[in-house]
Amino acid sequence: MAPPTTIRGRDQALAPLATPDSHTHCHLKELVQWECQFKGADYICSPFKRLFEHCTAPGKAATNYEVTDTYTNS
């Protein structure tokens, strides 16, 4: 099972994670999952995109923050 991921809203994602002198670097990452439903004799699958902010700072472990919002998959 995957480790837990902190979920941040869009307004929190736009706020800085650390002070400017901490040298924190963040990159946006994307993960596509598939949501499938069984209908009759067929499976109907549609993609579901999830967005993560992957942040690293010197001397600290990397952290992932989910920044998926309601408009990501519209």
From TrEMBL:
The protein's name: SOM1-like protein
Highest taxon of source: Eukaryota
Species of provenance: Saccharomyces eubayanus (Yeast)
